[in-house]
Design a protein that fits this description.
Helices cover 77% and strands 0% of the residues. By secondary structure, it is mainly alpha-helical. The chain is elongated, with a radius of gyration of 29 Å.
Amino acid sequence: MADSKKKKLPLPELIRQLWKPYLALARYLVPYKKRFIMGLVFGVLAGVLNGMIPLVIKTVGEKVFPGGNAALKINPLTSGDASAGPGVEGYIAILLLIPVAMIARGIFASLNSYCLAWVSYRLLRDLRSQLFAHIASQSLDFFNKAKTGKLIS
């Protein structure tokens, strides 16, 4: 009964076994390394901005709506006191942080998707071209023995 169970691999060996197919495909990635790295960087930037959006919203909320009973700080336009807080331009700049962060996140996420999709399509094209060249280089005897369905699939 114990012989029928598979032997459990140690973690480093398991990781090595799981990465074998990806390492075999890594050589196809070499011509597109620059675009692949750009896609990864854009993805990291999109992720960082995605995580920063709650912080931006919190910061904007604290600057625009300060806590306490300081009604003069909320609307410095009616108080006439310039030291009460930022002026209208300051509020506009602070409020623009939210859409700027979201637009930047969207741009980086789109660039991430574009770059990685571009690399994946080129990789797939290279694999298909290599497979076709390999099949086309076979002898006529190979095609006589092989079934058509096997060749197509």
